[in-house]
Write a structure and sequence with these properties.
Elements (H helix, E strand, L loop, with lengths): L2 E8 L12 H10 L4 E4 L6 H9 L7 E4 L1 E4 L5 E5 L6 H6 L7 H10 L3 E4 L14 H5 L3 H4 L5 E5 L4 H13 L4 E4 L11 E6 L5 H9 L6 E3 L6 H5 L3 H18 L1 H20 L1
Parallel strand pairs: 1-2, 2-3, 7-8
Antiparallel strand pairs: 1-9, 4-5, 5-6, 9-10
Length: 272
């Protein structure tokens, strides 16, 4: 079986306010590095994927999959991949940060998608194992419901990535790896080796649901913002924390309306 290198954690300037590189440039540079595909995971946004789709830049030699990095209310960031058969209301909902993790899991699994924690030992507040609930509640309650775990993130330390892989091994979770790229110089520094037959989100979901455990590889990108500003990074992290909390509160009524619509559709499909 021929394996292809995928970057399964990328941000685009069209979909993430802190990214400085367009999705089309991502594709071009990754191809130059010998990659065969990527998963777009903008922050609470599908705009990067929409920009790629509207550009009509489909390439038979390079696969672009739609995903998202979702900010949960209490457990940090999660990579989510949905099949193309889900209602538009669910895509719209995931562009509104702040769902509790239990509700996110219910919806994603109910509609046939998969999810797992991004950079689980990364920044405090933003990463599953670094959130306060992790220290207070039984960790198995959620770990056993994840479909994968990010085992190598090029922006995190070797120690934190090792801890992530050890956690995945303990709970028998398959891995993904990605650069978490926000600019060109991140690209090519981490990958997941996936079979060449993965061409769609449904293929990707089926591969992980079947219990496959792909190999991952990476080397650390040592010039992230936190590397450059050192101690002062904690203030940036706190800023993101309050930004997410404010966003969750601001989005409450719109998010509730979309959540109720998605639950109604899920119940209708379950009855059929």
């Amino acid at each position: 079986m021929c394996l292809v290198k995928f970057d399964l954690h990328c941000h685009s300037s069209e979909g993430s306010t802190d990214a400085r590189f367009s999705i089309l440039d991502h594709c071009r540079v990754l191809k130059e590095h010998g990659f065969g595909g990527l998963l777009i995971t903008d922050h609470d946004s599908y705009q990067g994927y929409e920009a790629y789709r509207l550009a009509g830049a489909k390439d038979d030699d390079f696969v672009v999959l739609r995903g998202i990095e979702y900010d949960t209310l209490e457990y940090g960031h999660f990579i989510v991949v949905l099949p193309n058969t889900v209602p538009q209301e669910l895509y719209d909902l995931l562009e509104h940060r702040g769902l509790p993790l239990s509700r996110l899991i219910k919806l994603v699994h109910g509609f046939g998608g998969i999810l797992g924690p991004a950079h689980p030992f990364g920044e405090v507040f933003l990463s599953f194992a670094q959130t306060k609930p992790w220290k207070k509640r039984e960790k198995k309650r959620f770990m056993e419901q994840f479909d994968f775990l990010e085992g190598y993130n090029a922006c995190e330390s070797e120690e934190d990535n090792l801890r992530a892989r050890q956690l995945a091994h303990y709970f028998k979770l398959p891995l993904i790896a990605g650069t978490d790229a926000h600019a060109e110089d991140y690209l090519g520094k981490a990958c997941t080796y996936l079979p060449e037959w993965i061409r769609t989100e449904e293929d990707f979901i089926a591969y992980y649901k079947e219990g496959n455990c792909p190999k991952v590889w990476g080397r650390r990108y040592g010039h992230t913002t936190k590397d450059r500003i050192g101690f002062f990074n904690i203030y940036l992290v706190m800023g993101f924390y309050f930004y997410n909390k404010f966003g969750a509160l601001w989005n409450y009524w719109r998010r509730k309306k979309l959540y109720d619509a998605a639950i109604k559709e899920l119940q209708r499909r379950t009855r059929q």
